[in-house]
What we know:
Elements: H1 17-32, E1 38-45, E2 48-59, E3 64-65, E4 71-73, H2 78-91, H3 101-104, E5 112-116, E6 123-126, H4 133-138, H5 152-159, H6 172-180, H7 197-209, H8 213-225, E7 246-250, E8 265-269, E9 289-291, H9 292-303, E10 307-308, E11 311-312, H10 316-322, H11 333-336, E12 350-352, E13 357-359, E14 374-378, E15 382-387, E16 392-397, E17 400-401, H12 408-418
Parallel strand pairs: 7-17
Antiparallel strand pairs: 1-2, 1-16, 2-3, 4-9, 5-6, 7-8, 10-11, 12-13, 13-14, 14-15, 15-16
Helix pairs in contact: 1-12, 2-7, 2-8
Amino acid sequence: xxxxxxxxxxxxxxxxxxxxxxxDRHFAREVDxxxxxxFLVSVARGGRIAHLTAYGRRxxxxxxxxxxxxxxxxxxxxxxxxxxxxxxxxEEGRLSLDDPVGRHLPAFAEPRVYESGSGDGIRTxxxxxxxxxxxxxxxxAGLTFxxxxxxxxxxxxxxxxxxxxxxPGTDLAGTVDAYARLPLQFxxxxxxxxxxxxxxxxxxxxxxxxxxxxxxxxxxxxxPLGMTDAGFQVSDEQAPRLAELYGETDASGDDxxxxxxxxxxxxxxxxxxxxxxxxxxxxxxxxMVASAHDMHRFTELLRRRGEVDGVRLxxxxxxxxxxRNHLPGGADLRAVxxxxxxxxxxxxxxxxxxxxxxxxxxxxxxxPSGLGTYGWTGVATTAFWVDPGRDLTVQFYTQVRxxxxxxxxxxxxxxxxxxxxx
Length: 422
């Protein structure tokens, strides 16, 4: 078990202690007013933790506090980990970003693309070009999620039983085969749509390495980096440290439709990932649990361009490639997003690399951001980012699945950047 500890004085690290206290008080109010159960936030400069706060409860009913060793379901923050794992195979020459996915997964050898219609009347055509590994990592593959309700292909995913991105009764291999039987929304490499692509990438890792995804990550990523709690399951010993998962509701506990504002929202426990025992479905898209210490080690790997404490997993140029914008024409998410929801001002100035978002134009982002800042978030309101220009790393953890958009990430980015003085 690794523990995250404060290692530097905020002032010496170029951080304003009063601004950090303001950030803590902001999120403490969210807890005290019942919108969050608890939280952990850490801010590092030069890789040294200069601010660390744990507040509130990891389990409200049991009265258990958030602590530095609390375990969190990180959901989509799994995606950058899967991307790093794939890039280790690229460096070994066992995989190429320009490999057709069908070379490793024959079910994708002849992808078809949606043309028109809906339901049984959908018409498709052959894709204009092959689906490549790099398209999976940059979410330009044309895959989707069943829970979107913006395109006829989304409905096909739901009809195939992929509501939770898992084909009923199958493992990763069977689920990925189910994806392959469905059309793409667009020609690979032409648009951006956040999707199940990282699950397909996880299956490629299994095929190329000859190992289950959890074994490969444990041996090649978690072990070398000292990510001692990270994985797809929790042991009996770890279980008491796992935070309860909550869903957002209105204060009366109904479905949220009657909420009339931010103050009316509350939280209630909801079912989370099946972490007790090895899951049948190993999701490279969102299946991991980890501690803040684990993810600090991972963000240090990225910040230090592939090396931590003498352990090198990637070459510097590979991390540079990962954290560079890969969207068509160098565009941002708003310009090339395939869903109406992508036409959000919050997507302006934000590109996407290989498993992480990347700030391409700070002047157009809604919140303070340095050029080249990269990171990602999880659906249970977890986040990390690395700002290379400021040598700043920020992590935030709670366990609330929101019903709609909220301001936690925008508030966090604004308050953290207000604390930087040098």
